[in-house]
């Protein structure tokens, strides 16, 4: 599901050799094996969305990892099968891994207006930081959510 979502979402935004790499599935398997079993990530929150026995979405958050973080949590993964966009699965996954009242941040690929609109709907706003992801060349922007009642 993770690899299929990458290929659906990032085609044209990441180099084809990255998305078509025969080792991509194995690399994502190693990523998830570590994320789910390594003690260093024991405080991470992970959720899956399922429909009729098939996984249609995944999400993972963890303690803030950006050096300049003024928030407590960071969303690391949120993917929903493109055929299920707009179904509510993304919102349910987001709420499962991030408390709606916690300050949080995420990095989203810049040229994805649908993803940015989804995060804006959930009170995330760009904070002016951007970066190029090592390994895949994706241009990303950081979006942050302040806790309810806080000043920007």
UniProtKB/TrEMBL annotation:
Key words, A-Z: Transferase
InterPro entries per UniProt: Acyl_CoA_acyltransferase (IPR016181), GNAT_dom (IPR000182)
Residue span, N-acetyltransferase domain: 1-148
GO molecular function: acyltransferase activity, transferring groups other than amino-acyl groups
Region ranges (Disordered): 129-152
Name of one Pfam family that matches: Acetyltransf_7
Entries under PROSITE patterns matching the protein: GNAT (PS51186)
Protein name in the entry: Acetyltransferase (GNAT) family protein
Lineage of the species this protein comes from: Bacteria, Bacillati, Actinomycetota, Actinomycetes, Kineosporiales
């Amino acid at each position: 599901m993770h690899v299929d979502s990458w290929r659906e979402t990032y085609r044209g935004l990441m180099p084809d050799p990255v998305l078509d790499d025969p080792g991509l599935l194995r690399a994502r398997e190693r990523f998830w094996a570590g994320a789910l079993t390594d003690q260093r990530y024991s405080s991470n929150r992970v959720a899956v969305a399922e429909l009729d026995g098939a996984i249609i979405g995944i999400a993972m958050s963890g303690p803030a990892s950006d050096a300049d973080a003024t928030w407590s949590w960071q969303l690391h993964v949120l993917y929903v099968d493109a055929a299920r966009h707009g179904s509510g699965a993304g919102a349910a996954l987001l709420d499962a891994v991030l408390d709606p009242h916690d300050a949080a941040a995420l990095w989203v690929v810049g040229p994805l207006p649908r993803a940015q609109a989804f995060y804006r709907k959930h009170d995330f706003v760009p904070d002016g930081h951007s970066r190029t992801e090592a390994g895949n060349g994706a241009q990303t922007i950081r979006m942050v959510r302040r806790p309810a009642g806080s000043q920007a």
